[in-house]
Amino acid sequence: MPSPELQPQIDAARAYEALHVPALFGDWAAPVLDAAGVRAGDRVLDLACGTGVVAREAVARVG
Length: 63
Fold this sequence. Notes:
The protein has 63 residues and is mainly alpha-helical. It has helices at residues 7-36, 53-62. It has one domain. It is 63% helix and 0% strand. α1 crosses α2.
């Protein structure tokens, strides 16, 4: 369990992921992967590219 000092930060991160990511970034993931030509069987490396919304879409796409 995180220390009490960290709990507000963890709660904020969860709220950001639940509310902002789908509303602001979710619709960008597929077009970004389309533009990059990512297809099933490809390998994708996501290095510190934000919340991981594109990486999660890539996992679903490449298998």
